[in-house]
TrEMBL record:
It holds the Pfam family I-set. PANTHER family: INTERLEUKIN-1 RECEPTOR FAMILY MEMBER, INTERLEUKIN-1 RECEPTOR TYPE 1. GO terms for molecular function: hydrolase activity; interleukin-1, type I, activating receptor activity. Residues 19-114, 142-218 form the Ig-like domain. Residues 386-445 form the TIR domain. One of its GO terms (cellular component) is membrane. It is a single-pass type I membrane protein. It is found in: Membrane. Belongs to the interleukin-1 receptor family. GO terms for biological process: inflammatory response; regulation of inflammatory response. Keywords: Disulfide bond, Glycoprotein, Hydrolase, Immunoglobulin domain, Inflammatory response, Membrane, NAD, Receptor, Repeat, Signal, Transmembrane, Transmembrane helix. The gene is Il1r1_0. This is IL1R1 protein. The chain crosses the membrane at residues 340-362.
Length: 445
């Protein structure tokens, strides 16, 4: 797997190195070169499909009817279908045409060459950089592109020198390795610090003269999420309360930085489907947006049976020759004693409160009812251990009042309160014995 990802990475790097345009897309394709450096421009039409191998290709300077010379010693010449500038000068910036003819096919294409100077105090021009991307933590490669055409007379690739931010010496880092045959630098354990401008330069000898050829690569490093050690999301060695006959989904899932983990269920040291043939595991895997993978397996217990309570259900997965385990235990639901206690307590309090309220409101009636029903046994003595409920005092025998208070106290009050309501009244002048009244009057004073 590791190998494959690095291969993929390599391919994606190479794809990025293909010229900055695609021939079909550009009406006038752009080419760049640094002043003083040789370059060879290819005709973008040649990449068109369906073109016969037997064709002729001729380069023209913009607007000129005379083809560019094929004289190899000329600074600008055409050779093998390419337009060579050895080297380019600032005046060379401009349009060039390539004319492609086969037996019954003819096509023309214009290209736009721009000759740049280096940016001030830099060894490159920021407008003509190749872009490459690498993933952090992986092994990566920076490739010096488009050097194939520049071989020595004996067809050897000249030595390539590397600079980072125009300074040599960065290759002393042990993580970096020169891959000579490939014009590339290998980087082990890429870090974000590796991003930057890399310039590769070689000396090209043509017709006995030496020229510099350089390329600058802008390297981006994408942060890769750290490989996360896999761990159970669920279960967490927990119990589930499930009633006999109920339906339970047994799910186990693992989050990790790697794909392809396969968790599986076991119970009683057997796979779950040999424990019960209706327990059919279903595996799934999904990758979250953070690049983390979730692998899971689940099965249905469509009806919980007694035997399901007897064992723990273990979920396993294997990672790096190590086995990881977590379990679920099914339990019949416990009697909810606490619930009963709380419920009972509340109703008890309510009952007491209710009783008290009833007593408060109907106290008199209750006492009377009690008295009525118990009167025969209790005689005059009542439950609250008082002989009388009320003590009636009234002004005695005033002539002017026509004995009205006497009548009220001695006739109406007893009639209503004693006969109808059942109170025991102490009425002064009726229930007082000689001497007693005096005593109470002494006490009152
Ligand atoms: C290529 O085309 C030219 C004329 O355009 C013809 O003379 C020549 O024989 C052709 N060669 C091949 C290999 O078809
Ligand atoms: C290219 O040639 C056309 C016509 O021959 C001319 O009008 C145009 O200015 C030229 N462009 C350049 C950049 O030389
Ligand atoms: C040239 O064109 C004719 C018809 O336009 C076609 O039959 C023939 O195959 C073409 N030949 C080539 C070499 O493209
Ligand atoms: C050629 O390229 C240069 C630099 O990119 C640009 O300024 C110029 O306008 C281009 N010319 C044409 C005719 O596209
Ligand atoms: C790259 O990292 C791995 C593990 O982190 C380490 O074993 C290895 O030595 C490192 N390689 C270099 C060249 O630093
Ligand atoms: C790369 O070069 C550009 C100028 O072209 C500069 O702005 C940038 O800071 C450089 N990158 C680094 C990482 O130094
Ligand atoms: C190549 O570039 C280096 C560094 O800029 C410079 O010292 C050297 O003279 C150049 N060589 C040629 C042939 O231009
Ligand atoms: C993992 O399993 C638990 C328990 O069934 C579930 O609630 C959760 O959604 C699952 N997580 C993922 C990412 O599938
Ligand atoms: C579990 O049962 C549900 C319906 O209750 C069904 O949708 C699901 O596909 C079943 N899963 C498995 C693994 O049998
Ligand atoms: C869960 O139980 C398994 C096996 O009994 C044990 O290996 C594991 O460490 C436990 N995990 C936790 C989080 O307690």
């Amino acid at each position: 797997q590791q190998k494959m990802t690095s291969t993929l990475l390599l391919i994606s790097c190479l794809v990025l190195l293909i010229p900055l345009f695609s021939a079909e897309e550009c009406l006038i394709c752009d080419y760049f070169v640094l002043v003083g450096e040789p370059t060879a421009v290819s005709c973008p039409i040649v990449t068109f499909p369906g073109l016969h191998s037997n064709y002729s290709l001729t380069w023209y300077k913009n607007g000129s009817a005379t083809p560019v010379t094929t004289e190899r010693r000329a600074r600008i010449h055409q050779r093998e279908g390419l337009l060579w500038f050895i080297p380019a000068t600032l005046d060379d910036s401009g349009l060039y045409e390539c004319d492609v003819r086969s037996r019954n096919h003819s096509n023309k294409k214009t290209i736009n060459l721009t000759v740049f100077k280096n940016d001030k105090s830099l060894c490159f021009n920021g407008k003509m950089k190749f872009e490459q991307k690498l993933m952090s933590t992986k092994t990566g490669k920076i490739i010096c592109p488009d050097l194939e055409l520049f071989k020595d007379e004996d067809n050897n690739q000249p030595e390539v020198h590397w600079y980072k931010e125009c300074k040599p010496g960065f290759l002393e880092d042990k993580r970096l390795l020169l891959a000579e045959g490939e014009n590339a630098v290998l980087i082990n354990n890429v870090t974000v610090q590796d991003r930057g401008n890399y310039t590769c330069r070689m000396v090209y000898t043509y017709m006995g003269r030496q020229y510099n050829i350089s390329r600058t690569i802008s390297l981006e490093v994408k942060e890769r999420p750290l490989q996360v050690r896999p761990e159970f999301i669920y279960p967490k060695n927990n119990t589930i309360q499930a009633e006999l006959g109920s339906h339970v989904v047994m799910e186990c899932n693992v989050s990790s930085g790697i794909n392809g983990l396969i968790p599986f269920w076991q119970v009683n040291d057997k796979d779950v489907d040999s424990f019960d043939s209706t327990y059919r595991e279903q595996f799934y895997e999904e990758v979250t947006s953070h690049g983390l993978a979730v692998s899971g397996t689940k099965f249905n217990i469509s009806q919980v049976k007694q035997k399901d309570y007897a064992h723990k259900f273990f979920c396993h997965f294997i990672y790096g020759s190590q086995e990881f385990t977590a379990y679920i235990k099914l339990e019949p639901p416990a009697q909810n004693i606490q619930g009963y206690l709380i419920g009972g307590g509340v109703s008890l309090i309510f009952l007491v409160f209710f009783t008290l309220s009833i007593y408060k409101i109907f106290k008199v009636d209750i006492v009377l009812w009690y008295r009525d029903s118990c009167h025969p046994f209790l005689g005059k003595k009542v439950s609250d251990e008082k002989i009388y409920d009320a003590y009636v005092l009234y002004p005695k025998n005033r002539e002017s009042c026509l004995y009205s208070s006497d009548i009220f106290a001695l006739k109406i009050l007893p009639e209503v309160l004693e006969r109808q309501c059942g109170y025991n009244l102490f009425i002064f002048g009726r229930d007082d014995l000689p001497g007693e009244g005096k005593l109470s009057e002494d006490k009152l004073h």
